[in-house]
Write a structure and sequence with these properties.
Helices cover about 70% and strands about 0% of the residues. It has about 100 residues and is mainly α. The chain has one domain. The protein is flat and about 45 Å long. The mean pLDDT is about 80.
């Protein structure tokens, strides 16, 4: 069992992995074209849950430490905030991330 606050994977690698997966999923959701959870079918929701489980090891590189999870989650939340700010300030980013129906 690993120590909860000892990273087995470099900090930069964890952040980079989370960022790559975040933008990949953003692209996938853009291609799917659904903008609200109310528009998701039960199949879509199950697919999202399966995807999240399948990429969890890819985000943390198999690092089971608590700190690796916190770094990955913080990176994803930070990117979400940055994308939201970008959508607010830039019409171009808004059209890319959440185009009109």
């Amino acid at each position: 069992m690993s120590e909860p606050f000892v990273l087995q994977t470099p900090l930069v690698e964890l952040a980079l992995r989370a960022a790559v997966i975040y933008f990949f999923l953003l692209l996938v959701m853009r291609v799917i074209g659904r903008h609200e959870f109310g528009q998701l079918t039960p199949f879509d929701l199950i697919l999202l849950l399966i995807i999240s489980e399948s990429i969890s090891q890819a985000i943390t590189a198999g690092d089971d430490s608590l700190l690796a999870g916190l770094v990955s989650a913080s990176t994803l939340l930070g990117l979400s905030v940055l994308v939201s700010i970008g959508q607010y300030k830039s019409m171009r980013i808004r059209k890319i991330v959440s185009p009109e129906a």
